[in-house]
Give the backbone structure.
Amino acid sequence: MKYYILNLGCQMNQADSERIQSVLETMGLQKTDDEAQASVLGLVACSVRQKAIDRVHTKIHEWNERKAQENVVTFLSGCVLPADEDAFLKKFDLMFSIADLGKLPELLRGHGIVTPLSQTLPAGNGLDHFWNVVPQYSSTFEAYVPIQNGCDKFCTFCAVPYTRGREVSRPSAAILQEVRDLVDKGFKSITLLGQNVNSYGLDKPGEELSFVNLLTQIGEYGRSTGREFWVYFTSPHPRDMGTDILEAIRDFPVLAKHIHLPLQSGDDKVLIRMNRNHSMDRYRSLVGTLRELLPEATLVTDIIVGFTGESVEQFENTRLAMREFGYQMAFVAAYSPRPGAASARWNDDVPLGEKKRRLQVLTEELHLSSLEFNRKLLGRNLRVLVERQDKKAGYLAARTEGKIPIRFASSDLSLIGSFVSVVVESVVPLSIEGRLV
Amino acid sequence: MTVSQATNRVLGVERLAPGIFVLRFERKGLKFETGQYLSLGLPGLRKEREYSIYSGEADPELSVLVKEVPSGEISPQLAKLKPGDALNVSGPFGYFLLRPTIGPGYPLLWIATGTGISPFRSFARSLPETDYVLLHGTRSLEETVLSSGFARSQTVSCVSGSPGGTYHGRVTGYLSTMELSPLTRVFLCGNCDMIYDAFDLLQAKGIPAGQIFTEVYY
């Protein structure tokens, strides 16, 4: 019997999917990428935008038409707003939060999906059970490790506190074990995941490691093995980003010199309306410390343009901030109200055309700052992680420690998943090209 | 502070002004720092809303100040609660914290509109020795009852919609007349328009953004 999972969300949802796959395969089901072959059809949903929710409705409508012809079971998990649950329950056979993953075999049994293995699976429940499921990693060299679930920040543009609930830190012993196992299996890139990774442990004061201590232990393990790998984390909140975290990244080579620091807006008043709880002065001071401690680190950000009420002048402050901080990558999104988020109750009053213009302006700024950074890499010999064949025939695609895409001439597919050294020979905004040495 | 999630029993609903009430409920050992908020929901109702804590840190029970929005999904339900009813409470959350800003030579200015006075009431109950000036803006004279528990000498009641109060006009109108020490720590709580206007005035008066703390109500 085969299953198919459609993942509509972010890296957190990908990590969820990998654990759902693991439970299904423990039951004896086999994965297929062709949904027409599958008897169990799963969807890991995202509630970030209405568009993502619309896709859930479209897909389940399609699946239910098929259901009229043949016997298939459908399920829904991931980020689902409580207000949407009733509507989805009527359309899907099963719906479960990720904390209830342990109940999946039992839920499927209730719909006639019984395998010899599923009858003997121990029942489990709760986030601890979810975290302890060994995932079916979708790569052999790159893995995502969830370290917390939920969010307590209540940014007004985001619905995560309502879809995933309160911030809960995964036990550090389990995180460290998963990281050690991945390193021992030869994984080269490990990303610690959470909605606010750097508030890790704050929900269990005195009982759990702080985020910097978690990083330090990973760094020390990396040093003790002598293996080459890079550890990333995403996404942090500027409010909880301390100098100690940057110092740990400086001190341990396995902690990648790549900092994701969401700005969202470069205007103090928009930050207030977003309930970000930090000022531009605070952000500026953090970037200053970062440049001092980690001068070669890449800096990456998230920005929303056209947030409710954002004036031309306020947007201009964001453009100036982009120029000031000189990002190497920025994930810029035109604001759209997230159903369930607080800002959905305010007027979405910046016209779409103006949002697109602002997005274009920031994209141009990003190209300028990226090109300036990349030019400084010309002639440098860089360690890169080979990821796949490049679109250009005869080339492999890789990325630097700072996650700058790089390609180089080689047809040796055995290099995929390993580190190689490349001399940078040409650069453009957002990517570089080099020669394998 | 550790975030807790529990079902607490309602102790009472007290009407303070038309459409405004205090909801009192069990504390169940929940610890918070004055200025933080809670997320409240009702069993069976899959929606939550955040409310600043109105009670003091040492009070035996918790309370929040609620403005009833007739078309709202939560507040009309909260208004109907009776003693003994169940209430889903999670928290505390937030960074609108007074304690880290208190220091010799740092004057405190608190500015609120409507039910935005809630965290300031918690400030005053939790740290009664604090020296502050409170500007409270309301549309009607009836709502000035919300500031009745504050020291009169430290409170400026700004009524915009009718005569009365200490000052006839908006809080920002009064603020524009004030002379402020550049060391003043300012707390703003209420609707976003007021916060934006006050923020601009404060910046023009030389108060850096890092000394302005905000809690937007929506």
Notes: The two ends of chain B are 25 Å apart (CA to CA). Chain B touches chain A at residues 2-3, 5, 39, 46-48, 50, 90, 93-95, 192, 195-196, 199, 208-210, 214, 216, 218 (CB under 8 Å). The mean pLDDT of chain B is 95.
